[in-house]
Design brief:
This protein is elongated. Strand 5 and strand 6 (about 125-135) form a beta hairpin. The chain has helices spanning about 1-30, 45-55, and strands spanning about 60, 85-90, 95-100, 105-110, 115-120, 125-135, 140-145, 150-155. Helix content is about 25%, strand content about 35%. It has a four-stranded antiparallel β-sheet with strand order 1-2-3-4, with no helix packed on it. By secondary structure, it is an alpha+beta fold.
Length: about 160
């Protein structure tokens, strides 16, 4: 009977070892090794660098609809949409502008983290603008209409 007990204990230990090894292998395959280095939070400097790297590009995206279509099914030469919208995304903030009847109007403006709105002239007028500022930077987005489509001009002001 002693040998039966010894055999059962050895089998149980072997099964436990195999289950543990399988669990560690699966965790390793999932990319989070059980015995690897622990994750650590980013330092303030690492966060600042990551944010600066991700917000250095200013972009403009046209959200206007397609140009009017003539009876032949093609685009009408020289025709521009009566209204147009444009999303202007900068490192300092985001602006949505709309042209309607030759006048531009800012529909919304949102400063980026660390920025605030210094001054805004939302229109409707021949031009609309918003100024974003932070402790280190100032940026102005001025928008005018050209052919029924908002055309932005982005100016960075050095202190």
């Amino acid at each position: 009977m002693n040998s039966r007990l010894l055999l059962a204990a050895a089998g149980w230990l072997l099964a436990a070892a195999l289950a543990t090894a399988t669990g560690v292998a699966v965790l390793g395959l999932l990319g989070r090794p059980l015995t690897g280095a622990a994750e650590r939070p980013m330092t303030a400097e690492e966060v600042r660098l990551a944010l600066a790297r991700d917000t250095t590009r200013d972009t403009v995206r046209d959200t206007a609809g397609p140009a009017p279509v003539g009876s032949s099914g093609g685009r009408t030469p020289g025709a521009a949409p009566a209204t147009g919208r444009r999303l202007v995304s900068t490192s300092a903030g985001t602006v949505i502008a709309r042209c309607d009847g030759g006048l531009v109007r800012l529909q919304s403006w949102t400063p980026a983290q660390g920025f605030e709105v210094d001054d805004v002239d939302p229109g409707p007028d021949d031009r609309a603008r918003v100024k974003f500022e932070s402790d280190e930077d100032r940026l102005e987005v001025e928008v005018r209409c050209s052919g029924g489509v908002p055309v932005p001009r982005i100016t960075r002001h050095d202190d």
